[in-house]
Prior knowledge:
This protein has helices at 14-22, 78-83, 105-111, 113-139, 142-157, 173-180, 184-196, 212-219; strands spanning 25-29, 34-36, 45-50, 53-58, 64-70, 75-76, 90-93, 97-102, 158-160, 165-167, 200-203, 206-209. By secondary structure, it is α+β, with helices and mostly antiparallel strands. The chain folds into 2 domains: 7-136, Jelly Rolls; 140-219, Orthogonal Bundle (Arc Repressor Mutant, subunit A). Helix 5 crosses helix 6 (173-180), helix 5 packs across helix 7 and helix 5 packs across helix 8. GO terms for molecular function: DNA binding; DNA-binding transcription factor activity. Keywords: DNA-binding, Transcription, Transcription regulation.
Amino acid sequence: MTAEAGEFLxxxxxxxxxxxxAAGRPKSWERGAVVMSEGDTSDWVxxxxxxxxxxxSHTSGGTEVVLAVRGPGGLLGDMSAIDGSARSATxxxxxxxxxxxxxxxxxxxxxxxxxxxxxLRMVTGRLRDxxxxxxxxxxxxxxxxxxxxxxxxxxxxxxxxxxxxxVALPLSQDELAGWTGASRExxxxxxxxxxxxxxxxxxxxxxxxxxxxxxxxRAR
Length: 220
């Protein structure tokens, strides 16, 4: 397992990682499995070690809104474990995933003060990211928002090939729509626009970015 850049585990020391893993037990899920459910009151957190998940919520009308994609090294369920409130989102496995389930996470933080500070900084980063996305929804058109998410995916998950950066993350167009706050039809149109400009190539659950700089410019 290699923790992805920016995820919780990359902020900890080797000793803290060992202690955190020792505080829990291993568990795995198949692709498509619901790892956590919105509204549940369970008190455990998941330290993700392998695979990627999507974090999503549903509107009153039943539309899924994708809030984030998390990969190896990510920490999930921390807010509910700390304040005792119901889960604010559903976590679903985008591929087979495994990790460590940790109960009494507040107890762990009480004896590992530096980890608590790291978590506070991570939560602050999430709030900043949430604010940035709200600005995007008001300032960018659908194509700009789709381009922004594709840049993020390419930078985090892109695999260099002879034709460009291949993003193999299994996100459907419906899920991409939920991540950009747009309809599936609008996302399809945006992807077609980006293809016509030669910036990307799309296939079933994959995207190849041919011109990352050009995609960044369109995102802005």
